[in-house]
Every structure is written in structure tokens, then in C-alpha cells.
Design a protein that fits this description.
- The longest helix is centred in the C-terminal third of the chain and has 22 residues.
- Helices cover 40% and strands 24% of the residues.
- It folds into three domains: 170 residues, MoaB/Mog-like domain (Molybdenum Cofactor Biosythetic Enzyme, Chain A), CATH 3.40.980; 78 residues, Ribosomal protein S10 (Alpha-Beta Plaits), CATH 3.30.70.600; 154 residues, CinA-like (Maf protein).
- By secondary structure, it is α/β, with parallel strands linked by helices.
- It starts with a strand and ends in a 7-residue tail after the last helix.
């Protein structure tokens, strides 16, 4: 079954907010066996919404709207759907009671605008929005389904998971969607493609392969849409085993996980700990690690030594090293890593120092020059990298590279003690 997602709101089209709803919905719909045919964004205008809906119904079986269902005058989705379906707004007592219950401790929020949320299109099936005041509305037209839901991300996600996806699965007989992702590191995309060309050419017709490059990694995603999932899983697993024999040590993981989650998982498996000393990354490595549930088992802490005075006074980097070699140098990176590892008593420590940009570079050390050091109890590794001119990309690339260095080291030393 094909789905089109339509987000409503001028704030999206002027770039005031980023449409993260569609990306999340596409992932969840795909898991449930639905194919997202197109994603569109439209203004808060009746004619624009109706044109988008007419067009969507020519190519999709399901149209999902988010946004434009609040209590204010610019929220016109509900009234527009009434116009489209030749319906009218009527009071839904169950919605009204739900609103009163939801706002029982916020009497100031109960006013004529919030009460207006209980007015719903007469021809719609009304679904409960368990975490908000705007109801969900479900329409059917010639075997197709149109659903309107709030644009507030946590309300939309709850609505999709609890109400909408289960109903769509029941309404339509959707095939199973199967994905298997292999993370490959150390091989550029073109080199990887050449290395596995014969294997790729031997893939059966029910399997498709996608290459997804991402900061020193390539994700190989095998996919299938099938009504016989057990049979396809058998074929898929056999092809993955063949791929493992071809790529061997280049395979970092057999599941689609972010590098920080792999780091936390593998440190936890070994009972090992890590700390960071960050200059150019400004605490981004620590942020990524601590975003993973359970990271407290392996992450002790971080020192953001952005200024040289912090490197000297907190990390005890010798002032002579800074004077002779500069902050962006191998000796300083290694000193930072060794110091924070000792300071926080961890098995490993990562240090970064570099010129993120867009200014501050020199002929000797241009923008994008970064030193990364990885310290263990017995030895230290360090390497210089030359990234690009974009500041945020340099921070993200440095962080990803640091994670990959640590993952490589954890793989080489099974017990996780000392590098």
C-alpha cells in the first residue's frame, strides 16, 4: 500500500522549523509494510491543502496529514476537510469530556478555543488523541484512507503508534518489509562496490541492495517486500554469511546502530570505561555517548578544554608543549588524552583538538585540521585528519572518527583492558 504524507504549516515552508515528523513516520510506516510514495508540505491555505489532497489520492492509498489542527485561527485543516468531504462540524461530547479531563489541573487553559477542539467533521471517524486536545480524524473515500493528526511531534508519534498504524494494518493487507543493515568501515563506497560486485550480481530478485555512505562508514542495506517472510529471511541470512566471508574485518556491525551506541555496548560488554577531553568538538562526543541509555555504566565524564588555560590548569598540559607545538598538535592531543584518563580513572580516553572553522586556519594548519588521540592504560594512539571547511561537519566527522578509532581498538583487544 502506498502512503503520502502531507505536513501543513507556513512555519515549515519558511524554514522556521524542520519537518522531522515525516522522517519518523516514514520509518514506522515502512516497518509496518507500507511504502511512502511522496512527502509534501503545504501552506495554511484551504486551496493549497485541497489541491495537495486531490493530487495525493491519484498516487496513494493512504494520505496522512500532520499539522493545522490546533485551536487558533490559522489552524484550518479540520474545516478544510469538512469542505472537501461536504461535511460540517458537530460537537463530539466524548472529545469534550476528554479535553476537560486532560486540562482538569490547568483551568486557565479551558477556554472557548480549547472547547472548539471538540467540534469535529460529521463524516469523520474520530479517534482519541490520548496526549492532546486535538482529536484525530479518519476519513474513507473509495477504498482509500485520509487521516488528520496534530503536528506536535509527541502527539503525532503517540497517535501513530496507538491508534493509526494498528488501524491501517487491520484495514489494508500489507506485505512484510524486511531490512538487514551491515556497517562497513575502512572502504570507500566505490571500492566496496567493486569488492562485492560478484556477490551483488548474485542476489536473488526478491532482495535489493542500497549503499548508504555516512562519515567513514558505508551502510549496506538489504531489503525485501514479501508475503513469505520466513522464506525470504532464510535467503537473506545465507547472503549475509557470504558477505561476511568476503568483507571479514571490514564489517563493523550487523545491525543499523549509531556509532555511539556500538561504543557503549562494546564497552559495557568488556566492563571498560571511557572519558573525553574535547577542544574542537566542544563536548559533542560526550553528548553523543550520554544520549545512549545505559551509558552511565561506561562513561565517567568529560573535560571541555576549549581554551588553552583549561588545558593547562585542568588537564595539566605543559605550557611548553602549547608554546612549541600549538594546541592543534600531536603532543597536546596525547597529553590531553593521558591526563583525562588519569584524572577520571578510566580504561580509555579520547582527546580532540583542531580547527573547526570557518576561520582560524593557517598555511601549516588549515581549517579542518584535527588531531585525535586515544589513550589506554598501556599505550596511546594518535592521528591527524584533514576535514573540510564546514564547521558543523568537521565536528561531526571528528566525533564519528573518534568513535571508530575506539571501536577498532575494542575489537582488537577482546578483554578491553589497555591499548
Amino acid at each position: 500500500m502506498k502512503v503520502e504524507i502531507i505536513t501543513i504549516g507556513d512555519e515549515i515552508l519558511i524554514g522556521q522549523i524542520v519537518d522531522t515528523n515525516s522522517a519518523w513516520m516514514a520509518v514506522e510506516l515502512n516497518k509496518a509494510g507500507f511504502v511512502v510514495e511522496q512527502i509534501s508540505s503545504v501552506h495554511d491555505r484551504e486551496d493549497h491543502i485541497i489541491q495537495a489532497l486531490d493530487l495525493a489520492l491519484t498516487r496513494a492509498d493512504i494520505v496522512l496529514f500532520t499539522g493545522g489542527v490546533g485551536p487558533t485561527k490559522d489552524d484550518i485543516t479540520k474545516q478544510t476537510l469538512c469542505t472537501y468531504f461536504n461535511s460540517r462540524l458537530v460537537l463530539d461530547e466524548s472529545v469534550l469530556q476528554h479535553i476537560k479531563e486532560l486540562l482538569r489541573h490547568r483551568s486557565a487553559a479551558l477556554n472557548e478555543l480549547t472547547y472548539s477542539q471538540a467540534m469535529v467533521p460529521e463524516k469523520a471517524t474520530v479517534l482519541t488523541n490520548h496526549v492532546g486536545t486535538a482529536p484525530l480524524t479518519w476519513f474513507e473515500k473509495e477504498g482509500k484512507v485520509i487521516v488528520s493528526m496534530p503536528g506536535v511531534p509527541y502527539e503525532m508519534k503517540h497517535a501513530m503508534q496507538v491508534e493509526i498504524l494498528p488501524r491501517l494494518v487491520q484495514y489494508f493487507s500489507a506485505p512484510a518489509v524486511i531490512h538487514k543493515t551491515i556497517l562497513v568501515r575502512g572502504l570507500p563506497e566505490s571500492q566496496l562496490a567493486l569488492r562485492i560486485a560478484d556477490w551483488e550480481n548474485s542476489l536473488p530478485k526478491e532482495l535489493s541492495l542500497a549503499y548508504l555512505p555516512n562519515f567513514n562508514l558505508v551502510k549496506l542495506r538489504l531489503s525485501a517486500v514479501t508475503y513469505t517472510p520466513e522464506q525470504v529471511h532464510h535467503v537473506l541470512n545465507a547472503k549475509v554469511e557470504e558477505l561476511k566471508n568476503i568483507l571479514r574485518e571490514a564489517i563493523l556491525a550487523e545491525e543499523d546502530l549509531p556509532a555511539e551506541q556500538l561504543v557503549v555496548s562494546r564497552l559495557a560488554e568488556r566492563g571498560a570505561t571511557v572519558s573525553t577531553a574535547e577542544s574542537c568538538t566542544g563536548g559533542y562526543i560526550a553528548h553523543r555517548i550520554t544520549s545512549v541509555p545505559g551509558s552511565s555504566a561506561c562513561f565517567r565524564g568529560a573535560v571541555v578544554a576549549y581554551d588553552n588555560s583549561v588545558k593547562e590548569q585542568v588537564l595539566h598540559v605543559d605550557a611548553a608543549l602549547l608554546a612549541v607545538h600549538g594546541a592543534v598538535s600531536q603532543p597536546v592531543a596525547e597529553a590531553m588524552a593521558n591526563s583525562v584518563r588519569e584524572l577520571l580513572d578510566t580504561d580509555y580516553a579520547i582527546a580532540t583538538t583542531g580547527i573547526a572553522g570557518p576561520s582560524g586556519g593557517t598555511d601549516e594548519k588549515p581549517v579542518g585540521t584535527v588531531w585525535i588521540a586515544l589513550a589506554g592504560r598501556d599505550r596511546i594512539l594518535s592521528k591527524v585528519y584533514h576535514f573540510k571547511l564546514d564547521r558543523q561537519l568537521n565536528i561531526e566527522r571528528t566525533t564519528q572518527t573518534a568513535f571508530l578509532l575506539l571501536l577498532d581498538e575494542l575489537r582488537e583487544i577482546p578483554d578491553g583492558r589497555g591499548v
